[in-house]
Amino acid sequence: MEKETDYKGLFRLFTRSIVISTLGMIFPFLYILFPSMYVAESVKEGIIKVMATLLAVVLLLGAFMGPVQAIVVFTIFGPFILIFHYMITTKRSVSMTILATSLIFFTSIMVLFFAFGINSEVLNSKETINAITEFYKNLAGEDLLSSGTMAIFTENVELYYKRFLQILPSVLIITSLVTSYITYTWAGRSLLARGVFIIQPSSLEFLKFPREIIILSLVSLALFSLTGDYFGPTGQVFMINLMNLVFFMLYVSGLAIAKFYMTRFGVKRFLQFLLIGLSFTISSLQIFVIILGGLDQIVNFRKIK
């Protein structure tokens, strides 16, 4: 007997998607809520109905907000939702699911870059750099800056922009991993609340990266440090991005340990989130968390294998 379609659930999915897409034009971070709804609903209702809902949302976005917005939403989230549904319904491991979905998310972003003609030459062009500096000058208030201060300000903006371009690959990889983990976790918890159980990631306090990955990354960093001159600027950029990924893994490990002990000692949930939020903004706290994550690779505070 064929399962009855939950039209109310699909309509809720449709309306929430429109709201998130509209608000997402002003607050882009809200798009993090977008894919988990579709993944959860696809497990419950089937991928065809859910993708039809996504297509309806995209067509409406195209009609009211323009084709660019519609193309971006469908290109980033369409393949992402499809691969998530496949990995969950075929009961693949958590690590394989996060790896596969992160790869698809990263690939979708790169496809958009190439489709819109965004490449290394464009990003490094004088026109782009001038546009960036003009934007920040207007933001700072061009009338408030003296000629000497303006020159220093422009130089700093250009310097920070070029540094950002260097770390862009690792930023995109980290964004892909975080998006996959959050989507997987929220979809799993949403389904659990509705009585459907799937294999899903552990909560933050029990999250642990395989020690081998971190050790291999550190060894690679050491090798590139010793042979940096041989590989030239390309090797230096690779090393900077690899270092960012290592720091990210250690930072997340440190956060997991902090969350584990805060939960164990009964710290209020609000206070836990407040302390975690502060660690995003206070550099000294970030360093402490990274050191804590590094020590966990040696001591294994939570005794997780």
Automatic annotation (TrEMBL):
The keyword Transmembrane helix applies. Keywords: Membrane, Transmembrane, Transmembrane helix. The chain crosses the membrane at residues 13-34, 46-65, 96-118, 164-184, 213-232, 238-258, 270-295. Coiled coil: none annotated. InterPro entries: DUF2232. The keyword Cell membrane does not apply. It comes from the Bacteria. This is Predicted membrane protein. The lineage of its organism: Bacteria, Bacillati, Bacillota, Tissierellia, Tissierellales.
